[in-house]
Amino acid sequence: MNRSKNNLKSYVISALWLPILIGCDRKSSPGEPETPNLDRANSGPVENIETSERIEAAALVEATSPFQQDLKRFTAEIRGAFDEKKFDLLEAKAKEFRDSKELFPDGTWKLTRFYEAIGKRFHSGDAGYLADLATYESWEAAHPDSTTRRVALVDFLTAYAWHARGNGYAHTVTDEGRRLMGERLGHAWKISQTLRQAEEKDPYGYEMAVIAAMGLGLEASEFESILAESRSHFPTYYPVEVRRAYSLLPRWYGKEGDWEAFAMAVSKLEGGLGDEAYVRILMNLKKYYANIFRDSDADWAKAKRGLEVLNQKYPDSLQIQNFSAYFAVLGEDRQMAGEYFDKLGDANLTEVWDKPERFVHFRTWARTGQW
């Protein structure tokens, strides 16, 4: 590696402009999703939350599990090692997780959680990003050829790009924010391409390449190339498929039916996860639809098979059980919904239901058939 080219300090000080590949036919600029179709997103009857359900929901406490506590400790340990510049430990852990492909009890890759943990900075403002930047420089000095460092750096630069842009709609983005976002995404993309040429492969690196390509608005052929490489090395690494499906939402670069067709194709990949991968995609995209089985071309029967596989493989996962109850209601499968609500009791998770009132309301439907 030519270290002078990748020295982050010189990159930030000089603000070297890296050309951005932006498809001129795109609906929006990088990182500027199309305004959601509000009529479609909110289509269908509004949930009629009864007073009794509100009272019942008020008594609920969000569920916790030993896994969630273990994950919190894991995240704290990895992020702490980064803050304390324990780079040898980080290198060893990443290699261990990369080689073993070890999973957590919910089926998520430990390697994925490792990189996500590094990104959990306590201070989210400019000071936090600049502090991390200095740590990456120290990591580079200690391990100049590290795959782990470069993968984490792509993740960092992508987040740093969005920080520059802000989370508002396109008309709220300043010229300076747009410029900085482009520079940082361009740098992230450049590093991701060196990772693809490296001998040591990392599945999270391919996931980050998809995110960078999405932000830059690259052509479909770029995504196809990334996915082909990822599948050849890590055929069961579903997060990269989830990321690509997200980019195919109509608010991004897809049209109606695109992500659904992609999810169906993913479920048929040789050596892949089949229906499990299909429902993993739906779990990520459900928040963009009032009812993903009514408002999109998602297939409930296929999703149900995927949930059955997930529950067999990860029987203690509260997340999967909550999603099983949630999707069963949306798929109008009262028998399955009732089975999972009986198993859950009051163990609701906000990431699935958003509000406890929804958990109670869906449970009422499963038990009575009354919406």
What does this structure look like?
- By secondary structure, the protein is mainly alpha-helical.
- The protein has three domains: 46-65 and 316-371, no CATH class; 73-228, no CATH class; 238-298, no CATH class.
- The protein is built from 19 helices and no strands.
- The longest helix is centred in the middle third of the chain and has 23 residues, at 175-197.
DSSP helix fraction: 55-70%
| Content-based structural category | mainly alpha
Per DSSP, the total helix count is 19
Q: What overall geometry do the principal axes of the alpha carbons give?
A: globular
Low-confidence stretches: 1-44
Count all strands and give the number: 0
Radius of gyration: 22 Å
Note the gap between the termini: 61 Å
Proportion of beta-strand residues: under 5%
Please summarize the sheet with the most strands: none
What average pLDDT do the residues reach? 88
Number of spatially distinct domains: 3
What letter string, H or E per element, gives the SSE order?
HHHHHHHHHHHHHHHHHHH
The protein's oligomeric status is: single chain
